[in-house]
Amino acid sequence: MFSKVFIVLATASAACATVFVTSPVAATTFTGGQQAVVTWQDSGVSPTLADFGPSKISIYAGNAQQQTLLQTLDASTDVSKVSQLTITPDASIGPNSSEYFIRFESLSLKDATQSQYPALAFSAKFTMTGMTGVFTAEILSQIAGQSTAPLASQTAASVASTTAQATTTSASKSAASTASSTKATASSTATASSAMGVRVGWTAVALSALIGVSMF
């Protein structure tokens, strides 16, 4: 039933500039087996809707790099001549979830930066209820972002390693600083007792490192 599609991230990003989907949006809920309306308009950014032209409109799940076709809604709709499509989502394509999105695939226009791919546009992820199906393990993996391996998994591992190392280093420095401060306090107390009237003041120095690690 499902068709797996590999998409290069740059392609997916560049393709969002033509068809601006006004429904569904992130707050939208469609119901399986019931009619709904997909609407769009020109984004005002080149290429135009006329350039995008006839398009395949489908429901997908996945991530920016790897996506699975769940249902073809229309095999050829000229997005420059109409601005909406009445659909009936198949309830069996998946479970109740907020991981669905509409994908527009131009049948004639190629991506400007990678001509081996068609121009694409996407809606926001939206929710579907009244569903009776399930997501396969592969789709769930795509949703989780794991299917973008090896790059994504290596990046995640690198971030985890860096975070762990930073935490360990920070903890070690903190422990060393605490031990040094304790020793200094004990030494100061002993000096004060033996000198009987001579006060010794110690200045404590604290070092903290703020490490920020940033990574659809």
From TrEMBL:
The keyword Metal-binding does not apply. It holds the Pfam family Kre9_KNH. InterPro entries: Kre9/Knh1, Kre9/Knh1-like_N. GO terms for biological process: (1->6)-beta-D-glucan biosynthetic process; cell wall biogenesis. Residues 1-17 form the signal peptide. Residues 23-117 form the Yeast cell wall synthesis Kre9/Knh1-like N-terminal domain. Keywords: Signal. PANTHER family: CELL WALL SYNTHESIS PROTEIN KNH1-RELATED (PTHR28154:SF1). This is Yeast cell wall synthesis Kre9/Knh1-like N-terminal domain-containing protein. The lineage of its organism: Eukaryota, Fungi, Dikarya, Basidiomycota, Agaricomycotina.
